[in-house]
Model the fold of this input.
Amino acid sequence: MNRLRRLFIAPSAVLLAVTLVGPLVIVGLYSLLSRGAYGGIEQPFTGENYTRLWDPLYGEILWRSLWIAAVATALCVVIAFPMALFIARSGEKRNLYLSLVILPFWTSFLIRTYAWMFLLRDTGLINTVLQAAGIIKDPLPMLYNNGAVILGLVYGFLPFMVLPIYATLERLDPAYAEASADLGARPLQTLWRVTLPLCAPGIRAGAILVFVPCLGTYITSDLLGGSKTILVGNLVQNQFTDARDWPFGAAASVVLMAVAMALLLAARRRGEELL
Amino acid sequence: MEPILELRGVRKRFGAQEAVAGVSLSIPRGSFFSLLGPSGCGKTTTLRMIAGFESPDEGEIHLGGGRIDHLPPYQRNVNTVFQNYALFPHLTVRANVEFGLRRKGIAEIASRVDAALDQVRLAGKASRMPAQLSGGERQRVALARALVLQPDVLLLDEPLSALDPQLRKQVRAELKDLQRRAGITFLFITHDQEEALAMSDSIAVMNGGRVEQAGPPEEIYRRPRTRFVASFVGAMNWIEGAGLRPEALRICRTPEAGLRPATVTVTTFLGPVMHVEARFENGETCVAEVSANGGSAFREGECVHIGWSVSDELRFE
Done:
């Protein structure tokens, strides 16, 4: 019995060791080594990469990454909850709506982000139409700012919020909403005091699925944020490409992972308290 | 007595199936009224239309003199104890009981909640979460949550079915006692005829979306109006087309005029009484209920003679 169990677990264990644990160990090791002349790494071991991160400049980047990810996550909750509620109450059409939510995944994230550039830039679709209609004279500066990055993140990660909330709503016993109405609550009161709190597990799951990738994003901020909106993801990417400072990039990603991990653990503890 | 709740020709159709096919009921104020029937008979749909979770296709529902069938649930002065109680899992016992009072903007919340929790003997558990309670306690929270609003009618949707059998009989008596003390009309939905007989002032027996008979338990039991009511409420033997209750049958060891010979197939000892199953010569079977302490017990395979008085025969078209 025990041997059989090990046999079945073995493939996943090997896969995780090779694709998750291995790379993590490599990143950890690199972050403690010195920079090679043409990229790569060299001896000796040093803690300098971490001390260099202790700089207000990088603190600012980390802080910006955190609040942009937080705002994007919050907006996702606000948009996804009504969407999930609508889908859950659509009867036979719910499968159609669900496939519409998943549909964007059929196109590369990169291409969809480019599409936003075409929509938002000064000579893009929105500005051209508004100017042609005489509503605005000068183009609205919609691209290359924090707002554009947040928009791109919300757009990109919204399905990851909709699906877990939908799954929770789907499983929710309709008797709770009926009991609420039975006790005198109007539909909006029922929504606010019963349905929404009972969806907390789905919202929490969605928040993790959205917040973590938002924190590490670099494509969205690179394409929609321009040079002013550097996030931790861009910093890491830069060190491995243009700056050719792999150890420093590795150190930055270790710090990023540690921060994300700490926040998740805190959120989980708080979640347990609420339950 | 003046009815508090009246249904007039209520119908409800789901797709091709008519769940409720013209139900008229008159429920007296302050009574313990049961809707009894097998699953799928339309009793739950009837309750859901009274609560406002479904709207009737036809007919009228009147509560305390006013028509309510067009009102949403939150504007009807009825409250429901759900089958699985539907206690809000994210709220404490106290917050569950307060819920309705807060929504209706009623004053003196704390004292009312305390009184309601006292009434169901849960005063010490106000700060617990529903998940920390036993099944019986949850059921009492559901009762308190509904009773605290002092509804015109309390609707109970098979509230005992989630309890274990041991507890059920005890809760029956408690529920009946609570109804008397609170003076609130109870409309109790059940498929358990024993429950309905034991607790109700009146019973309406439903089958196929219709009320087959309504009346006091004794009348339902002694003078069933249809073959369905006769066999659904209490045990019934069918001998040559006549319905006979087990306790109406008499078993002797010696032949007498008017008695029919039969062979005992199974005997079941139930304490004060004994159930004797027997087969007549024509193949019909019956169950007789006889006193267990008079004389020697009947044995399986024994030849006996079974009789009854004609006045106990129930005949239907």
